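Summary for the steering committee. One of the milestones for this cycle was to obtain a three-dimensional model of the protein with adenosine-5'-diphosphate bound, which we needed before selecting residues for the alanine scan. The sequence and ligand used are listed below.
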Amino acid sequence: MNLATNLEQIKGVGPKTAAELRRAGLQTVGDILMFLPRKHEDFTNVTPIAELQPGKVTIRARCQQISTRPVRRGLRLTTAVLGDDTSKLNAVWFNQPYRVQQLGGSDEWFYFSGTFEYNYGRYQLTNPTAELAKELPVQADRLLPVYHAVRGLKSQTVRKVIEQLRPLMSVLPETLPPSVVQSEQLLDRAAAISAMHFPRNEREVEQARQRLAFEELFELVLASQLNKIDNQKLAGFAIPFEKSVVQDFVKKLPFALTNAQRRAAWDILQDFENARPMNRLLQGDVGSGKTVVAGLAARQAASAGYQTAFMAPTEILARQHAETLARLLEPFGVTVGLLIGSVKGKARQTLYQQIASGAVDVVVGTHALIQDKVEFHRLGFVIIDEQHRFGVEQRQRLLMKVKAERVGSGALDTLSEPMTIAAGSSRETGRVAPGSRARHGGEESVSSALLDAKKPSVAAAMPHLLAMTATPIPRSLALTVYGELDVSVLDELPRGRRPILTKIISPPSREAAYAAIDQQIAQGRQVYVVCSLIADSDSSDRKSVEAEYKRLKNSIFSRYRIAMLHGKMSASEKDQIMQDFKDQKYDILVSTTVIEVGVDVPNATIMMIEDADQFGLAQLHQLRGRVGRGQHQSYCYLMMSTNNKPSQRLREIEKSSDGFHLAEVDMSLRGPGEIYGRMQHGALNLQIATLADTQLIARAQKAAKRFIDSGESLSKYPALEARIRHNQRVTTLN
Ligand code: ADP
Ligand code: MG
């Protein structure tokens, strides 16, 4: 038996259990050993019902009576009476009707763990877990692991199998370099994993967690540091700063740049002068004016004879950017092209030719830009808007295309021995030595560096990269993932913007909100109404775009022009409606979150968000950013579906319009481990470390530096190396 052994071969694992495990993605011994508990329960500490105090409790009781009933749409309440030798209490579960099968009519003893609290006028046990007592290997000295119920997987099943594997624990290989384990005084990996599954007490759990969290963070920051080194070795195109070009551009703007915009532009123009490619993240809250900064840089690139590719996540956005950039750049003779799906046939072929011949200086597009057919003449600058919006796969594809180029010339050289993965033909890559002014060979398309690295022909250098995002990244996250990255921040809104007035609206105040909308439209303004659903659904009483559209159109706002927008419409339909709304052909747009991304309609002044409690904090902030983009006072209404107390999320967003502050709040409100997945890095999968681990992050950073400096080869640690390679791909921008 070893880590690769199939679970079916384990004693006591029949076909049924194996299937249950397989459904949860657990196939081998290694899989299940690394399937770490989500929490531990202390069944050694059982309280008699008569002695319960409010808080987290565990009781040992029998179910005397249980029933379930629907309360309203989307909510099913299951209630039970539980009793032990001392007393009885009521238990309540929300949307867990299966408890009836589990507990009903059974005379067995169960352990129930949950919150004992005063609610609805009486004390009750809320949402307790229930474990059949006779199945529990309860020992006086041990906590019980609770595993994620992936597709109905029962903790009990996992526990049984892992119990069988206990002897294997000690042979789990160490993955971190011994020098790191030693200097950081970490638990070794076998001990840590074993302690997660079989801890004696909370202290052991925390020690084990720290060790495993350290490992994750170490892998992340080492990858990030290697990327940095990697980047410094790449050759790029030096684009000299031309004062007059920049001044002329700024003079022609209808507004003065904010100081933050100036600083960011300056960062970029300085990077441009380097013969190594820029790798910069431009973070700016919604409406902070990122586009004009990008435009200024594109202007400078064009002046030096380089093309710019500007990639946006949606057609609407690409079109908007193309229009903005054309307005900004064409007065200087800089030509702008738009490459999106709806540009077809002859027009598309012509555009391809113009891109290839250099007749178009700035190409704005969706992911259509990364197709094989697109060949640039002299691509020197790449801009990615809302970079995190690109699906993991799309991003990954783009990354892979670039990345293959980097393998031979990357950070690996800095380690004493090359990583095995780095071996291969790409090592022979001829590239312009850093420092020498890069030259474009007309015959060797640079686009192959960005767009199609599969080709054996190899580009001389990499274009400069500017990735833009409106999702502020909390400092601690930036530190970990982007610690080694160049970042410019637009932390200042253009002058004259009035803060958006945000209000939580409870059901009785709905009419007043409609009256406010009425007033705004009468003054010529426009309004967004956002719903979380496209169509009404049986399983939810949330408002839907289709129903709200009908309701508003047929009654409340029948005198106004109303349109609807959602993700099930074709791209061209969506485009048309958004364009028409922009052109003020509609007063009200009822939409799902498809309008969320960067669309600029300065005349829109009200954002009404239905069932606001259904959205995440970051999303609400983004939605709110759709208004307040012009000189008019704007409003955001967070509509509550019930009279309940609003969530803390809503109260925070009502209070603050600072995206960075909200990002920090968001982080603290969410459970551990969720941040990474939902924020920038779908492909990054941090299971254990949380952003609260700031000390560990700092330690991991130091340890990673020491490791690089030591010159020790990563290839000695294949498991570590593989994960670092993966992290390098997902944390790099280019
Ligand atoms: P975002 O950073 O969200 O992408 P945009 O680039 O779309 O923001 O800019 C939002 C709006 O602000 C646009 O209408 C733009 O013309 C305007 N804008 C940008 N910079 C300034 C400025 N310095 N002063 C006034 N308005 C500005
Ligand atoms: Mg934008």
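Key point for the committee: The chain has a mean pLDDT of 83.
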